[in-house]
């Protein structure tokens, strides 16, 4: 099967991480092309962050569009896909739709077309171009939509019952130690005040959707209240104005490490993972924390409510308030040994593996729906 994966860029992020993993896995038995649409060819903005992780089996084509609405760029996307002449065209994220809408509309009648949803309805999928796609190509079933968590799927089916919507749980390749693991181990231990410190990790870019203000405010207050905890924050965007403000208000036990290629080493040296998002689809970082065998504390977003057994292998806050999120963190500390023991028994199971995920995509691509 000849498959084209279309994505905005390969910059650090969950969508990009998933797309590279999926393309690599699909390429084991299929001819796979990965189209990146708009990116800095010199990688000054990290747009090719994951490029080196692409398998040699995957053909990477960079379109290099300057703006989404230039007809020249739109035609280049459509012509590139047409030249490949694939069996499947698979769009990832709303950004890729904006930069390839001409290809989507001109080619969906010729090639089987799929769009994977990477967030919930509040995350930009109920407005503008996406709504237009749903109410045109979606209604006549020229596009199949894929949701990455059960909650997300149920929400979309309720809101768009006339569309062809499938549910495939998100997947992730297993986390592996790198040759920097021992250095990271020493670095992370340096963030503990003593042997009893619980070390939390948050891995996400700085942006409103990730709701880091809630995260920082909660940890600031708990540290001031005497809880023996530290927080490590990994990701891009903390050199922006909003990121600088977060750093400025953060307690000295909150450590911003910037972008890291070996996030797995940091996960594997943490006690708990924390997610503070306002909305998600199925967060890759939650899958990574499960793969690392560390409990998670999360707001009640899509994906988290599917993946975490509340009070068993992680804790989900009741809502998005600071009181509720603090209570979730405190509960995770109180029952940490139980959480840690329970999630350790889950480690190594492959329900959320990228191999299983890719197999379900192939079944979806081959279906007659």
Walk me through the structure.
The protein is globular and about 60 Å long. Helix content is 40%, strand content 17%. The chain has helices at 14-26, 71-84, 93-98, 101-107, 128-138, 150-159, 181-189, 212-224, 241-249, 263-268, 284-292, 304-307, 322-334, 336-346, 354-366, and strands spanning 2-7, 31-36, 59-62, 88-92, 112-117, 143-147, 164-167, 198-203, 229-234, 254-258, 272-275, 296-298, 314-316. The protein has 369 residues and is of the alpha/beta class. The chain is built from 15 helices and 13 strands. The longest helix is centred in the first third of the chain and has 14 residues, at 71-84. The strands form two sheets. It has a seven-stranded parallel beta sheet with strand order 3-2-1-4-5-6-7, with helices on both faces. A six-stranded parallel beta sheet has the order 10-9-8-11-12-13, with helices on both faces. Helix 1 (14-26) packs across helix 15, helix 2 crosses helix 4 and helix 8 crosses helix 13. Helix 5 links the parallel strand 5 and strand 6 (143-147). The relative contact order is 0.12. The model has no long low-confidence stretch (mean pLDDT 91).
Main sheet? 7 strands, parallel
Radius of gyration: 21 Å
Write down the secondary-structure element order: EHEEHEHHEHEHEHEHEHEHEHEHEHHH
Instruction: Work out the number of β strands.
Output: 13
Based on Cα principal axes, name the global outline.
globular
